[in-house]
Every structure is written in structure tokens, then in C-alpha cells.
């Protein structure tokens, strides 16, 4: 089966070659759609493919994505951003995936890193059968509605930015929709609230997310909205309301590792070590379901709980157990400065 890789680009001359060098290992066709570059992006694209199209930007990522799909001819279509990177092991896996029988494949999208260690990941619909007629929807945070025979594979796509984009771009597009009288879908409302919070527009973001939670929405997004509201209310100095939002997430779905870490930090800050211990242990045992579609902070699943349990047991005088959790944390991040400092500390404390 053949695979077409589709990109939409604008002023990506710094990263496009890096991306397309990776793509060459598994793509049978590359389709690049430019939405208004003025920096040599188009010239770079043409050195990799003759399938370069142009699309007049109209504040609609789905429209541009769908146009890029229309230029592709492969049995399967895969989308990427210009600042995405596919490492060799993942490229090999993608070459194998395209020979499987499926309609849609979800792959992990690694979006934040500690050095080269991915700390923030979520699964995205990444490859789909062309004859199924899948299309993106949503002006921003565009997505393809899952249907058909779906598979999950671990070929990771790494989102490796080299420069900051326009932080207000997505907000402008969403506000344009609102101003034109378009009713936002629950998913769009969720992201609208998050955009506002990311720009420190706390009052406005809180209002949007509270409104979102009063209606319908995907369970995973609803629990994430509760954690977003927790952080926003804490920044506003309203700890009681923040805690209410955090606990509200437990009424929607079982506690995530991230929620457990938040509670552990709260109790640790108060010196209530037994409660802090309970929640950090709960974080370690919480299901690590990265294929749920939500955002997963991998640090909260193991590294942070281990480091904090090390702190707790050290303060309680249980140095053996504290050292054991530090060693466990070091297996995840062997170059972490705090871990390495703890190694020296416990060498002196325990005499080894």
C-alpha cells in the first residue's frame, strides 16, 4: 500500500528540510500546500516533491488541511506539521504500518521534552485510508472524527519547534467565529478557554471553561478542563475554588496521575506527609492510558512521584526508602540534576 504525507506550511524554511528528510524514509508521495510563505519555504519544498500546491489562507486550518489531502494519491494519507520530526525507529514502524489493513491509525504525538525525553504526549489520528473520505473539521485545533477500523501504534511523531509562533493566532480565529455568530462546538469551547488561560486572560478563560463544564463534552476534555480551572483559580488566589474544581474531576472520571500529583503537592506543602505519600503513591498506580486521546504528562506518571516520595521519606528519616525512590527516578532521567544531587546526598547519608 502507498502512503502520501501531507503538510500545510507557511514560512517554515528553518525546519521544513528537517521534516522532509525524515519523511523520505517512508513516504511514497509528499504533498505540500503553502498558505503564503515569503521566506523560501516553497523553494525548499520543491526540492523534495513536485506536488506543491497553494492555498489562500482564510483563518481555517481544516480547509487548508483538506486541500492538502485532495492533492494526494496514495492508498493512505498521513498529515504532519513542518516542525515535526520522525526518528529512524518510528520511520521504520510507519513503513510497516502502511502495509497493515486499517482505516485510521492513531500515533503518539510528543509535544514537550526534558532534553530528548518526551514528557507530554497524546495520541492523534495520524494516518487514514484515502478511499474512506476522511476530512478535518474545526477552524483551529482541527481534527478528523474517528470511525472505521482503528488501530493504535507506537511510532511517535515529535513536535520540535525552533521558534515561537504567534501566540494570539488561534484566539483571533476563535473570536472571529464567535463574533460572526457561529456557535462553538463543545470541543471548540474547551480549546477557546484554554487559549484564553494560556494568554493569562484568567477571568475570561475561567468563564468559558465553567460554561463548557455546564454542558456536554468529551469526558477526557472535561477532566482536563477541571485541572485547567484548578490552576487558573490558584493563580487568582482562590485556593478553595481551585480545590473544588480538582475534586470535581474525580466525579467525571478516575483520578489521573497529574491530579494525584497536584494533591500530593498540596499536602506536602502543608507538611502533611501521610496524605502527600498517599497521593504520590496513587499517581504511581494510576492507569497510564496514553491512548485515551487526552494529554498525558509523563513526568506525573512516575518521575515526579518518585522524586517527591524521596523527599517525603527523607523528611521522615526513612533514608533507605527515600534512596530507593531516588534510584527509581534516576532510571527515568539519569541526567537530572536533582537526582544526581540526591545520589551524592544519600552516599554521605548511608555511607555508600
The number of helices is: 14
Order of helices and strands: EHEHEHEEHEEEEEEHHHHHHHEHHH
Can you give the mean pLDDT? 96
Low-confidence stretches: none
Number of domains: 3
The assigned structural class equals alpha/beta
Helix content: 40-55%
Q: Into which percentage range does the β-strand content fall?
A: 15-25%
Approximate shape: globular
State Rg.
Answer: 23 Å
What's the β-strand tally? 12
Task: Let me know the CATH homologous superfamily of the largest domain.
Answer: Spore Coat Polysaccharide Biosynthesis Protein SpsA, Chain A
Largest sheet: 10 strands, mixed
Distance between the termini: 57 Å
Name of the CATH first level of the largest domain: Alpha Beta
Question: The CATH topology of the largest domain, please?
Answer: Spore Coat Polysaccharide Biosynthesis Protein SpsA, Chain A
CATH architecture of the largest domain: Alpha-Beta Complex
List keywords for this structure.
352 residues; alpha/beta; Spore Coat Polysaccharide Biosynthesis Protein SpsA, Chain A; Serine Threonine Protein Phosphatase 5, Tetratricopeptide repeat; 3 domains; 10-stranded mixed sheet; two-stranded antiparallel sheet; 12 strands; 49% helix; globular
Amino acid at each position: 500500500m502507498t502512503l502520501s504525507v501531507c503538510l500545510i506550511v507557511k514560512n517554515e524554511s528553518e525546519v521544513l528540510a528537517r521534516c522532509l528528510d525524515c519523511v523520505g524514509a517512508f513516504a511514497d508521495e509528499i504533498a505540500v500546500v503553502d498558505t503564503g510563505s515569503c521566506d523560501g519555504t516553497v523553494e525548499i519544498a520543491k526540492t523534495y516533491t513536485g506536488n506543491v500546491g497553494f492555498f489562500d489562507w482564510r483563518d481555517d486550518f481544516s480547509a487548508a488541511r483538506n486541500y492538502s489531502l485532495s492533492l494526494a494519491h496514495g492508498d493512505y494519507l498521513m498529515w504532519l506539521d513542518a516542525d515535526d520530526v520522525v526518528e529512524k525507529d518510528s520511520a521504520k514502524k510507519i513503513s510497516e504500518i502502511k502495509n497493515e489493513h486499517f482505516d485510521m491509525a492513531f500515533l503518539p504525538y510528543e509535544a514537550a521534552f526534558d532534553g530528548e525525553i518526551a514528557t507530554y504526549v497524546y495520541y492523534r489520528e495520524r494516518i487514514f485510508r484515502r478511499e474512506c473520505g476522511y476530512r478535518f473539521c474545526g477552524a483551529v485545533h482541527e481534527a478528523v472524527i474517528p470511525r472505521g477500523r482503528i488501530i493504535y501504534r507506537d511510532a511517535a511523531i515529535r513536535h520540535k519547534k525552533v521558534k515561537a509562533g504567534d501566540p494570539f493566532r488561534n484566539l483571533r480565529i476563535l473570536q472571529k467565529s464567535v463574533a460572526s455568530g457561529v456557535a462553538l462546538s463543545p470541543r471548540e469551547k474547551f480549546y477557546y478557554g484554554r487559549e484564553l488561560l494560556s494568554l493569562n486572560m484568567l477571568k475570561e478563560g475561567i468563564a468559558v471553561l465553567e460554561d463548557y463544564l455546564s454542558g456536554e463534552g468529551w469526558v477526557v476534555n472535561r477532566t482536563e478542563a477541571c485541572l485547567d480551572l484548578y490552576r487558573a483559580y490558584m493563580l487568582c488566589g482562590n485556593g478553595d475554588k481551585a480545590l473544588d474544581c480538582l475534586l470535581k474531576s474525580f466525579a467525571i472520571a478516575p483520578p489521573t496521575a497529574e491530579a494525584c500529583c497536584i494533591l500530593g503537592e498540596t499536602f506536602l506543602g502543608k507538611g502533611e506527609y501521610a496524605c502527600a505519600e498517599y497521593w504520590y503513591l496513587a499517581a504511581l498506580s494510576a492507569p497510564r492510558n496514553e491512548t485515551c486521546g487526552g494529554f498525558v504528562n509523563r513526568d506525573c506518571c512516575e518521575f515526579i512521584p518518585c522524586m517527591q516520595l524521596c523527599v517525603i521519606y527523607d523528611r521522615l528519616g526513612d533514608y533507605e526508602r527515600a534512596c530507593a525512590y531516588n534510584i527509581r527516578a534516576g532510571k527515568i532521567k539519569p541526567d537530572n540534576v536533582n537526582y544526581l544531587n540526591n545520589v551524592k546526598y544519600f552516599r554521605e547519608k548511608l555511607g555508600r
